[in-house]
Amino acid sequence: MVHIYFLSEIYLIFSAAVLLADRYGMHLIFLLNARSFYLTGRKKRIVFPLIGLLLMVGLLFFPIEPGPIIIGDLMPAMMILVLVFNFFLSLSGGESENFSGKKDYILGILALAVALLHFLFPSIVII
Question: Is the backbone peptide bond immediately before 68 cis, with ω within 30 degrees of 0?
Answer without folding.
Answer: no
